[in-house]
Amino acid sequence: MNDDLDDDIGGVHIKYLVHCRRQLWLYSRGYRPEARSQAVAFGEVVDDTTFARHHGVDLGSAKIDWVTRGAVVHETKSSRKPSPQHQAQVLHYCLLLSRRGVTVREAVVHYPLIRRTIRFAWNAIARRTAETTEADARTVIATQKPPPRLARPDCRACSYLDYCWGDR
Fold it and tell me: Hey, what's the signal peptide range on this chain (predicted)?
């Protein structure tokens, strides 16, 4: 176990890696336009009001929505459709807890707007996937130049849109 690696890569890093490597690169350098994003504000309201009786788990740069008995990691998303970035994020949380000695059983992503939940087993395959994803994030962050931007249609509703596409 390498303790100095535990808290430097959080769930947002992983989510951004899977969504857009450029977004991760910018985020890791302190560019944070999310504070002005209506989509982010909406997601926070959904998170705060949907499962209000649960308390988050703060792991430094990672903030897990909640963990239930039997070490089940829960994450709430305001999205109307499941995404690979959501899976990568919850598996990363499982990895972080495992490194702290917690015997994690599974992860659950809740989509309250569509009344759907998706479960992901935490096993050796999931762990390898999470470790590979984390290593990929470290590689992107370490590069000196930003990765290329996505095609403009893929950037719809992204809070980084102005940085990547503004006045070009």
Answer: none
From residue 62, give the alpha-carbon distance in Å to each of 15, 72, 144, 157. 11, 16, 24, 23
pLDDT tens by residue, 132-151: 999 999 999 999 999 999 98
Q: How many CB atoms lie within 10 A of CB 143?
A: 11
pTM of the model: 0.84
Q: Is 42's pLDDT higher than 70? A: no
Beta strands at 116-121 and 106-111: parallel, antiparallel or unpaired: antiparallel
Instruction: Sketch the domain layout of the chain as residue ranges.
Output: 3-148
Question: Taking the alpha carbons of 110, 133, 55, 28 in that order, is the dihedral positive or negative?
Answer: negative
Q: How far apart are CA 14 and CA 164, in angstroms?
A: 20
Which of helix, strand or coil describes residue 161? helix
Tokens of 141: 């962050």
Q: Bigger pLDDT: 36 or 141? A: 141
Structure token digits, residue 116: 């759907």
Distance CA 61, CA 71 (A): 20
The CATH topology of domain 3-148 is Lambda Exonuclease; Chain A (3.90.320)
- Whether residue 130 contacts residue 47, with contact meaning beta carbons closer than 8 Å, is answered with no
